[in-house]
Fold:
Amino acid sequence: MHDVFQNHPPSPIQEIWAEVLDQHAIELLVKRDDLLQPAGDDRFCGNKVRKLKYNLQAAREAQQSQLLTFGGAYSNHIAAVARAGKRYGFRTVGVIRGEAHEPLNPTLAQATADGMHLHYLDRDTYRKKDQPEILRSLLDRFGASYVLPEGGTNELALRGCEELVTEIRQQLGSLPDYLAVACGTGGTMAGIIRGCIRRSRVLGVSALKGNWMEKEIRRLLGQDDDLTNWQVFTDYHFGGYARFPPELRAFTREFEREHGIRLDPVYTCKLFYGILDLIGKGVFPKGSRIVVVHSGGLQGWNESMDQKLGLPR
Ligand SMILES: Cc1ncc(COP(=O)(O)O)c(C=O)c1O
Structure:
């Protein structure tokens, strides 16, 4: 088991083959960050490791023994913070959007089992969670904490995601023509854009409906907002966040059967669907090398998902 505060071995890069890749002479590689599992399982993996690494280090340096963070009831980030807290010795508080529902869904049940204290905020108050008085009342109630924003996106998270690019460059000997990643808050993509320093074109596929992602990424890039080597595709949300309609299910099932790689139902299935669709449409020049980042998110997968998709266990 590797400590998140030390250097972990790089996640592997795996090439995949498909007819559409041959037809368009594209080399497609998958950066298997889903296999980056410093706590020993997929409850804490993928972009969560990248985003939390320097935050956990900062929390420890600040001698904080408690992490407090925010998320929806199905948040991968909530699950990851709970598991990281358990693994690295922090108490954890998860401030959850909306009302409590019993029984807890698998994400929150797991977070509780990992020792996270759940606190629910009605949607109205949750929306105002970044206002100083709301945050203060939470800290008064739960005690001094290292506060992680929703989705874990902050400067230190971007720094962790930049390292993904360094790793890829070391593994391949050079950066690919394109690097593709799924977007939720945009933090992972912003870190990757910074890491590329104009050498690869970074493609984001948004898991959410709407056209605000590029603006948000520019905001996250801050003084690096003059970087232009990137773009976000917003046509692959399949109805919006956490929508997983039959076409996407069928794609996810076939992808796993053909390539032996499980995609998560919220982010990476839309990413791979989108990139393969763009390849089929001839968007990339022949001979291009594309690295697609598998950012994890498999913690919410359970047996009922296998049954839904008709996958063998
Ligand atoms: C598996 C997975 N991939 C990608 C993302 C998107 O990351 P970001 O919020 O940094 O855009 C998330 C977000 O939580 C995620 O859980």
Q: What stands out?
A: The domain at 2-37+154-309 is CATH 3.40.50.1100 (Rossmann fold). The longest strand covers residues 91-97. Residues 1 and 58 are 21 Å apart (CA to CA).
